[in-house]
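G., the chain you wanted modeled:
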Amino acid sequence: MGLTHPNDHPTDGGWPGGRALALALLVVAGLLAVDLAMDRFLRSAGWGHLLIEGLTACLALGMGLGLLRALRARDRDVLRLRRDLAAEQAEAHRWRQEAAGLLRGLSEAIDGQFERWALTEAEREVALLLLKGLSTRDIAALRETREATVRQQAQAIYRKAGLEGRAELSAFFLEDLLAPRTPH
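Predicted structure as tokens:
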């Protein structure tokens, strides 16, 4: 088991071994301070040597403390982001639960309209992906087909539906859903 902190994980945006490096810098600073004191006490080194060791000890101490401070701030940020993410995920889950029946009904209504337009299975899939906002390039990649094929299918959808393009397709299904509330 290493000297790393449990939060030092690449997926956390941290630096693996960051705390181990900070600890090593602090140990180096401590060892240099002990060596500096012994050299001074024993008068075994000149002032130039003592000055260089002193500056090196201060630098290692400053870097170690700065790194620990940065890691602590990063840990606070990661914790805050995890709390925010959990709250957003809970909110999205609540919304999906509340809207499940409505979404099921909307899905059935969209499917019924696709039937009235006599869309093929491939056209239905493309139409749904267009409604979700995917580009023709993304749809082609997702369906493992050429972008030109997706464009042709999209044109067939618009022709069968009597619509001019993607904006009208979206508006056909979403216009009434997104209407402003009427006062009671």
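The CA atoms of residues 138 and 147 lie 8 Å apart.

Shout if anything looks off.
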